[in-house]
Structures are given as C-alpha cells and as structure tokens.
Design goal:
single chain; alpha/beta; 11 helices; about 55% helix
Length: about 230
C-alpha cells in the first residue's frame, strides 16, 4: 500500500509540472522595445520561484499577437515603443476580452501616460525603478486581479480625480502627441496610420480626442493651439 501511494504521489507531481510550469506558477509576457530590458526582466523572473516567462515582444502590435498565442497570466507592458505603443495594445486586449492582466512597467509617470493606460484597462502601473521584491509582489497581485500602483502614480491619479480639468485643457496622451506632431508636418491620415502602424479609423479617433482636449474643431486650429501652449516646438 505504501509503495502504491508513493507511486501515485510521484505521478501527480509529474503531471503538475509538465512543460515546466507547476501549480501556482505565474506565466508572463515581457513587452519592451529595449532588448537589454527584456533580457534583464526575463533573467530576474526566471531566477525566482513561481514565475515563468513565456515570451517577449518589442512593441504593442507584437504584444497583442503574442498574448493571443501564448495566453500568459500577466503582461509586463512598456508604454512608448516604436511600431506600436502600450496604451493601444492594452485597449485592444481589453476589447478582445484577453484573460491576461496587464501591469504597466515604464519610466513615465505623467498624467498623459498614467491616466490613458489605466483607462485602457491596465490592472497596475509601476515605474522601472521599483525594487525587485516590489515588482514580484505586484505581478502576483496583478495575476489575482488586484490593482497595483506605484506611490507616485497613485498620487497623480488621486490629484487628477480631485482636480477636474476644464474642457480644452486636458493633457494629451503620448500617442495623441505623436499624431499631432505628424499633423503639424502636413501628414495625411493615411500616412499617419502607416507611420504609426495603426488603422486610419484609429487615427481619426485620436484626432477627435485631441480636438476635444485642445478645445478646437479642426487640424489647423489643433496645430496652432499646440504651438501656443508649448505642446509642439
């Protein structure tokens, strides 16, 4: 009887760790445009018990594709990346009903970065200077669906909620600033879409949002207002 029980226990253990992932292990997708950062994060998590890095992506477009293919528990998402930003990827994943929780990990903590990311559906927001243990704790919390915010970001969000901005005086997101800069160069919607690897419909949506935020009604007025406020140049 003892031998049979030991054999059964061994078999259960083998099943639980098949493919290298045991019970309770959190799977991750690392998204960052810097290879050194991706390598560092992969090494950090793979050296710690309870984590497994399934893959990497260098921009938001790749992140969406990899998330669909790998189905990770948590996605560590940078925001400003050539070829596809993090906010757009988060919004896409949210619309698609992706199971993965997105934990933003970036160097940017301005209102124009934090608020759009949270609104898009990010579960948490940390800065890259977060200590190793804090990052591990945040990933575990995100995997459980709990919101995680760095102190600086939490403070900004509280201030934003307590101090409503007047119409026409809201900060532009990083992507909206990119679109506006291209508009200022006389770039068409189709060319902007090609440049930023997004659809023309998305370009029009960004334009609508930035018109509202700037309190204007057309491209020329948006550019003029942006220069007047120091957003451009």
């Amino acid at each position: 009887m003892t031998d049979d029980g030991a054999d059964d226990a061994t078999d259960d253990g083998d099943d639980g760790t098949e493919e290298g992932t045991g019970e309770g292990t959190i799977s991750l997708l690392v998204v960052d445009d810097h290879p050194v950062v991706r390598d560092g994060l992969r090494g950090m998590f793979e050296s710690a018990p309870g984590f497994r890095v399934l893959g990497e992506a260098s921009n938001g477009v790749e992140a969406v594709e990899q998330a669909a293919a790998l189905d990770p528990d948590v996605i560590l998402m940078d925001l400003r990346m050539p070829g596809g930003g993090g906010v757009e990827a988060i919004a896409h994943l949210t619309r698609a009903g992706a199971r993965a929780k997105v934990l933003v990990l970036t160097t940017y903590d301005t209102d124009s970065d934090t608020i759009p990311a949270i609104e898009a559906g990010a579960t948490g927001y940390l800065l890259k200077d977060a200590p190793r243990d804090e990052l591990f704790t945040a990933v575990r919390a995100a995997a459980q669906g709990r919101t995680v915010l760095s102190p600086a970001v939490a403070s900004r969000l509280v201030s934003a909620v307590r101090t409503p901005r007047a119409p026409g005086n809201e900060p532009l997101s990083a992507r909206e600033r990119e679109v506006l800069a291209l508009v200022a160069k006389g770039t068409s919607n189709r060319e902007i879409a090609r440049e930023l690897f997004i659809s023309e419909a998305t370009v029009k949506t960004h334009l609508t949002h930035l018109y509202t935020k700037l309190g204007v009604k057309d491209r020329a007025a948006a550019v003029a207002t942006a220069y007047d406020r120091g957003i451009l140049g």
